[in-house]
Amino acid sequence: MTCLEPNADCDDMLKIVVMNDLHLVSPGSPSPNMDTTERFDLALQHAVQRHSDADLCVFAGDIADKGDAGAYAVFDRLRCQYEVPQCVTLGNHDDRTVYTSAATNFEMDPNGYIQCRRDIKGHCILVLDSSEPGRARGGFSKQKRDWIHAQLSDAKDLDLPVIVILHHNPSALQMPVDAYRLDEPDVLKAALLESGANIMQIVSGHCHISSAGSWSGIPCATIAGNHHSVEPFLRRRTGQQECYASSAEYGVVVSNGADCAVHFETYIGAQQAMDHALFPKKKDQTFEPMI
């Protein structure tokens, strides 16, 4: 049984749930190889059970599979069950014009992009809109970069570590998916590094695989998300890359300001638990004290 118990030691710990690549469709429309609406509902139920104490839930793009109004209505209806603060950004399958006409409770920057900043528990969380109409690889226009620069300058002045969340993965995974990762990633890299701000973590979706690594020294993680996932298909391999509908996950970012971790919560296709009696020391384990 999972339960959330009061713990004063957790009060200063930041927790962000990240859900991505929902690929929702309008009611009655063919779903892309699986029932993505049911899968999203299961993700939310799982998060309610395990992470109702989250400080923020970020929906990191590809909300809709075809950018249609009906899918965004489904999204708004279902996400209401997860009663934590939320923010949204878009991906290459989304349509910004349709989204802003059909959806509710979203945030825009002054130029109309679906991106926002939240300062929570001594952190600056930047949720960036990497989507661009007609460009599967997305990108960052000068208007977007100017907004990012202003937020990072302020975060630096306030001495806030920064967590960046966006749809397109900027770092190379050494897989064929790199052919459609974020377009001109060095543009974003320059905006982040030249700011002098403490970029603690980047989290993205888009590539449908769980990964962790770094990008010019910046820690990066990708989350497989709600739709299909893919196997690691690295250089020198040939043949067909396997895709799987048997599992789905969201991410949980936790930080105490000095240490940041990204966890992957599998809500479909979870592994079979072993007998608890085999691991008696794991009963009611203690946590390392927060710094």
Automatic annotation (TrEMBL):
InterPro entries: Calcineurin-like_PHP, CNP_phosphodiesterase-III, Metallo-depent_PP-like
Coiled coil: none
Limits of the Calcineurin-like phosphoesterase domain: 14-209
Keywords of this entry: Hydrolase, Iron, Metal-binding
MF GO annotations: hydrolase activity; metal ion binding
Family annotation (Pfam families): Metallophos (PF00149)
Family label: Belongs to the cyclic nucleotide phosphodiesterase class-III family.
PANTHER family: CYCLIC NUCLEOTIDE PHOSPHODIESTERASE CBUA0032-RELATED, PHOSPHOHYDROLASE
Protein name as annotated: Calcineurin-like phosphoesterase
Record organism: Epibacterium ulvae
Lineage, uppermost ranks: Bacteria, Pseudomonadati, Pseudomonadota, Alphaproteobacteria, Rhodobacterales
